Amino acid sequence: MAETEETDGEGLARPAYGSDVEMNVFDAVRSQSANPVQPVKLGKTDSFCFHCHKDVSCWNVCCHGADITLPPYDILRLVRFLHMTPAEFLEGYTVPAEHSESGMPVVKIKMGGENGEGPCPFMHEKDGCLAYEARPSACRYYPLGLISMKMKEAETKEDFHFIVREEHCRGHAEEKRQTVAEFRNEQDVEAYEQINRGWIDILMKLASWRSMGGVLGKEPTAQVRQMFFMVSTDIERFRRFVFESRFLETYKIPDEALELARKNDIVLLQLGFDWLKNVLFNEPTIEMHEQVLQAAIAKARTELSSS
Ligand code: SF4
Ligand code: SF4
Fold first, then answer.
1. Centre of ligand 1 from the C-alpha of residue 136, in Å
2. Residues 30, 171 share a domain
């Protein structure tokens, strides 16, 4: 159970736990306040009162100056909804940022106003979110946050939620009571969670490595950061990288998987996560061609012996 609260460096308060747990905090908190988290663990069958609708006095307040990091699937959905290329979307609607815990490059929605305190570009005064069908996961979860936690002794991670209670949000005073499962279903978060999970695992692993001085004791290089940014933000660029560069001369991808990745952005994204896990953590998520592998081993040996 949560004991106290700590802040994540981006102004988001997070429940603090003992050192016997590994925890992934999904950046799903669309928060404007400094310390809004209620440190109460909610499972899927727990219930809470909340209702957001056009007649609340705070309608749209939360869509100003919001801090919304966009995971890869959120970008895919918005790009499809807006009928844009990822490059056009990144240029028009996002600002580059650094994920505070891992130091990796990410993008956030570009809020209006000179200091980013203005409205979200998708906000309409009367109608609310004009991108509702493709709204980001942070907007879907609100006012819930999601934590994936694994006790050191446990085999698997356990997910649970917590409530973000910001003073300006009057939705908490509404009488609609629902379980976490009902809310999640209504907000349609399942696909976002499943598809983005590989990416969040990478960020959290990097954050954990960073606290020990970087992957294998080193900070990721500029090239690795660029690779991460490409997979995270621009599926078209990654597609060109896989099919039009020497990627397939280096990696052995089964024909069937390759055909699926060619046709399906989500499969291609998962290939991107597998590739990053291999490059960053040496995980056996993707196979190299034998001669490339032998050459890489020989190069590593030479480097080791000369250092
Ligand atoms: S994407 Fe939609 S719901 Fe999210 S902050 Fe912007 S207008 Fe609000
Ligand atoms: S009730 Fe909360 S989530 Fe809904 S518009 Fe108001 S501040 Fe935003």
1. 7
2. yes
In this structure, the answer to whether residues 194 and 59 fall within a common structural domain is yes
199 CA from centroid of ligand 2 (Å): 28
Atom of ligand 2 nearest to the CA of 61: 7
Q: How far is CA 5 from the centre of its chain?
A: 22
- Considering the domain architecture, whether residues 200 and 266 belong to the same structural domain is answered as no
192's tokens: 């976002």
Mean pLDDT within 183-198: 95
Kindly state whether residue 99 falls inside one of the protein's structural domains: yes
* Global confidence as pTM: 0.86
- Whether 66 is in the pocket of ligand 1, judged by its Cβ within 6 Å, is yes
Residue of the CA atom closest to atom 4 of ligand 1: 139
| 208 half-sphere exposure, CB direction, 13 A CA radius | 14
**Ligand 1: nearest atom to the Cα of 132:** 2
State in Å: Cα 58 to ligand 2 middle. 6
Cis peptide preceding 143, ω within 30 of 0: yes
What are the CA-CA distances from residue 212 to residues 207, 215, 224 (Å)? 9, 8, 18
The 8-class DSSP code of residue 214 comes to S
Say if residue 269 is in the same domain as residue 189. Answer: no
Q: Which domain holds residue 292?
A: 234-306
Tokens of 300: 């590593």
Instruction: Encode pLDDT of 128-151 as tens digits.
Output: 999 999 999 999 999 998 887 766
Contact residues for 290 (Cβ-Cβ < 8 A; gap 6+): none
Among 221-235, 258-272, 286-300, the range scoring the smallest mean pLDDT is: 286-300
Tell me, yes or no, whether 217 lies in a domain.
no
Q: Are 207 and 102 in contact (CB under 8 A)?
A: yes
Contact 163, 40 (CB under 8 A): yes
Which tokens hold the place of 123? Answer: 């906000």
Number of domains in the chain: 2
